[in-house]
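Worked example 2:
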Amino acid sequence: MRMLSSGLLFLAVGLAAAVVHFACFWVFTRGASLNPLLANALAFTVAFAVSFVGHRRLSFADHDQPLLQSLRRFGVTALLGLLTSEGVLALVWHALGWPDWMGVVMGQGVAAVQTFVLGRWWAFARTHPGTDQPQATP
């Protein structure tokens, strides 16, 4: 049951971060005329704050990681998500010639799965008492 509620909270936090990400992307590309790859990276950075706070306090609230450790680990997780997102955007926008916003949406979807797995079993994992080895919580 804890995994189900964690998953639902993850979806809610992820949706909030995705809305922030997409809104920023739209403003950066349509309002400021930035290159979509740069706009995506900047939007991802803004959405990181929403994602980290939400996942730390809600999605994975049962973790026992110190703040700086989970921030470092989630930062690595986010950077991997950004690389994934940028790769999907580049493929969809450059290689396939589809609209840039489709690449952002698709990239967010792929990065979300990656973020859940790394968040649950690494960035916000519970540790065995007395060790630093992560242990996923069911």
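DSSP finds four helices and two strands in the chain. The mean pLDDT is 86.
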